[in-house]
Amino acid sequence: MLTVRRGRRLVPSGTATPAHACSSWVYIGRVSPTPLTDDRVTASRPRVFVTRDLPGDALERLAQHVDVDVWPYERPPTQDELVTGATGCRGLITMLTETVGDDVLDVAPDLAVVANMAVGFDNIDVDACAARGVVVANTPGVLAQTTAELTIALMLAATRRIVEAADAVKQGRWPDWHPGWMLGQDVDGATLGIVGMGDIGRRVADIARGLGMDVIHHNRSSGVPLDDLLRTSDVVSLHCPLTPATHHLIGARELALMKPTAVLVNMARGDVVDTDALVTALRERTIFGAGLDVTPEEPLPTDHPLLGLPNCTVLPHIGSASVRTRSTMANLVVDNVLAVLDGNAPLTPVPGSA
Predict the structure, then answer these.
(1) Of 42, 132, 175, 180, which sits with the fewest C-beta atoms within 10 Å of its C-beta?
(2) Per the residue annotation, which of 164, 298, 324, 326 is the catalytic one?
(3) Secondary structure of 150-178 in the HEC alphabet?
(4) How many whole angstroms separate alpha carbon 81 and alpha carbon 20?
């Protein structure tokens, strides 16, 4: 069992501690039969703050080289708690739930690296980091296949109404067999339009072709115009980063261009889609359905309109959630931190980083 230490007390990872507690949680490793003393932590070593316990043995590897403070709760730290944890650290390992900007950078003047455990990095002010010589790294590539597989799963769930049909069974609404009940859309021979043809988009395209789909794509610098893709596609799959240019890229006008038999899959970021417009389109059946692994709010409130729509499948941002992939991501963020603290370039720097 992993342990963290708060002050002189050992606390098993995941153990409830007072909500106001936020001073210093030091990762120790495996539970020891003998209480650990303060001399086990070397003050002269650089300190790294990690905003969540990591799967696998990545934290143990990190703790062999640096002193590690780990946020001990499953919930993300608040911004004030993030600032407190980051104070004076040399390295910072973050998730998408943390925002790293001037307030964090101000309290860590010796910060050398921010390693984000995600492909996206819209939660980090890369320009502010670069201005202070702080390297930013992410985890591209390693989660592409896993996320692509979930994209296909969401596509099939939406086109074949899988969740809607499963709910009917659970709720006692399973009628006698009828040829017109719970009809979906075929993907064989259908056109898949991919918006954002990066690592994940290319993997999705490979799998989709194996299912007999025709694939077109739209990028800033290649592929077909977005409007043409929307008019042509039977499934539109979003894999673009969230930027000012892609915020609400898919709104009421774009949804109106789609076929009434078409499905929208969003694996990018929630704010790439205008949620109010999507709710209207799904409600009025101007598109057939949607599959979402990302939403504007995460977690999504249980009374959100999206969750009341039978033709919308919403997942809790689990695109990379496999044992192998998350362990690989954890090891990559640790490798990035150790490389920078050792005076080398990170393995996967973010474009524009220092």
Answers:
(1) 180
(2) 298
(3) HHHHHHHHHHCCHHHHHHHHHCCCCCCCC
(4) 9
Active site residue 218: no
Strand partners, 139: none
Residue 9, SS3 per DSSP: strand
Q: Is 269 a catalytic site residue?
A: yes
- 3-class state of residue 28 by DSSP: strand
pLDDT digit string, tens, across residues 72-130:
999 999 999 999 999 999 999 999 999 999 999 999 999 999 999 999 899 999 999 99
Q: What is the pTM of this model?
A: 0.82
The confidence band for 43, taking pLDDT boundaries of 50, 70 and 90, is low
Q: How many CB atoms lie within 10 A of CB 244?
A: 5
**How many other C-beta atoms can be found within 10 angstroms of the C-beta atom of residue 275?**
21
**Rounded to an integer, what distance in angstroms lies between the CA atom of residue 67 and that of residue 44?**
9
Q: Which residues of 279-313 are buried (b: 16+ CB within 10 A; e: fewer)?
A: bebbeeeebbbbbbbbbeeeebeeebebeebebbb
CA end-to-end distance (rounded Å), the chain: 37
Torsion angle of C-alpha atoms 273, 278, 279, 280, degrees rounded to 10: 140
- Catalytic one of 8, 317, 324, 326: 317
**Strand 135-137 relative to strand 113-116, pairing:** parallel
Residue in the structure block whose two tokens are 């860590």:
108
DSSP labels for 41-77?
A: S-TTS-EEEESS--STTHHHHHHTTSEEEE--SSSPP
